[in-house]
Amino acid sequence: MSDWDRFAAGHGPSEERGQAPWSVWSTAETQTSLTAPAWVSPPAPTPVPTPVLAPASGRRAWRLVLAVALAVVLGAGAGGGVWYVTHGRAKVGAGESAGVTRSASAYRTAEDPAGYTVDVPRGWTRTQRQGAKAPVVTYGSPDGTRRLQIFRVSEDSPAESLNLAENDPGYGFARQPGYRVIDRATGPSWAELTYRYDGGRGEGARRVIDRRFEAAGGSLYAVRSSGPESLDPALVRGPLTAAVDSFCPAGANCR
């Protein structure tokens, strides 16, 4: 039985728990003259050569060269921008759309006394209750409507732990009023269940995402994020994704 399951058994099955360097052309003129005798007819003036303009096709060629050069420079800059956007975004957890990102400024890294570091929403308040074998840590939003819970589990696999938490006849959360599965997902070292239920104490309908996973070092943990069912699902998903992606037990190598 997981620590959460034991805890839930005593507290009900809720989740509470500059210019160009060149010019097209350049000209310079130097003129000299001598005074001729009066009887000598002055020679016909030497015509001043008219600058030869580049043909229209030549000018178009220059403009084409400049346009291509400009495009290369701008393209290089745009490529750098694409690299920054794609490589600078926050990690995306399993089950989350690749188009959804989170702002790093909305989270802080907590060195939790329970023995791990984890990213949690800024401004959320930490509480802790002792389970049968390990503490159940809860970070709650200032308005009290959203919660992020973290605890260690003792089953042999994430899938086994999640199945027991859901279906145990005594305390499984499938027994909650209005319980309905929204989504299930599994991976090589994790299992996740999204569901809704009718909350008590005036809370109304609730959405819960429960992820059981193998952390660095091989220990198994659960992270549960919950909020009102009417809330944008991304606001329930976000804290869970941040916590799972950043989670690192004390002493483990999480690089």
Report what the structure shows.
The chain has 255 residues and is an alpha+beta fold. It has a 7-stranded antiparallel beta sheet, sandwiched between helices. The relative contact order is 0.17. It has helices at 3-11, 56-88, 158-167, 233-246; strands at 107-112, 116-121, 125-130, 135-140, 147-152, 180-187, 190-199, 204-214, 220-228, 248-249. Helices cover 26% and strands 27% of the residues. The longest helix has 33 residues, at 56-88. A hairpin with a 4-residue loop joins strand 7 (190-199) and strand 8 (204-214).
- Beta content comes to 25-35%
The largest sheet is: 7 strands, antiparallel
Q: How far apart are the first and last residues' alpha carbons, in Å?
A: 30 Å
**Computed CA radius of gyration, to the nearest angstrom:** 36 Å
Name the poorly predicted regions: 1-43, 51-57, 64-101
Mean pLDDT: 72
Q: Kindly report the spatial arrangement of strands forming the biggest sheet.
A: 3-4-5-9-8-7-6
Number of strands: 10
Structural class: alpha+beta
Principal-axes shape call:
globular
Helix % is: 25-40%
* SSE ordering: HHEEEEEHEEEEHE
Q: Count of helices?
A: 4
Name a few traits of the molecule:
255 residues, alpha+beta, seven-stranded antiparallel sheet, three-stranded antiparallel sheet, 26% helix
Brief overview:
The chain is α+β, with helices and mostly antiparallel strands. It has helices at 3-11, 56-88, 158-167, 233-246; strands at residues 107-112, 116-121, 125-130, 135-140, 147-152, 180-187, 190-199, 204-214, 220-228, 248-249. The two termini are 30 Å apart.
